[in-house]
Amino acid sequence: LSGTTATTTLRKEIPFSEATNGPMWADASTDYTNLSFKHLAGLLKLTVSGLPTDKKLVLKVTADKNIAGTATVNLNPASGEPYLEVSDEEGATGVVKEITVTDVQAVAGQATVFYVPLPVKTLGELKVNIYDKNNTSTPLYKEKKWTNIAVARAMIRSASFGFEVVDATGDKTITQAITNA
What we know:
By secondary structure, this protein is mainly beta. The strands form four sheets. It has a five-stranded mixed beta sheet, with no helix packed on it. Strands 1, 7, 8 and 9 form a four-stranded antiparallel beta sheet that branches.
């Protein structure tokens, strides 16, 4: 904290086992007994279901602009609520265009939800892919993609990844199994 500017880091790698939430702030300058915390960033809500439980997976969030690294917040803006920003300056220290969620482990029969904080800015492109931990070059599922997305403070953007198990045992062909699923 320096004056009314706070500096923090949006991580480029987040272990799946850690709690997920975006950076928050509360004004304690006048009343520190009734604090009301507010989000400083946008959130990307990722829901995965029906994934193989015997594999560790990796989620990759990529953008055309910097979405991780050193972030700043003006805690006393001229108008509105404070929000978190990451520099888009080329070559700036500690900023990256990709966030990796590591060691995603599916639980049988349950959807798994994870939140990735995003800085406030307009992104020309935002993509999410899911990979096997041992093969991060070939996505396991069709990517989720948005263009010209305005990330706002306390905004939530959602993406879901789901897999269906198809039983093709016995005399069924794969086409029959898919049709009857």
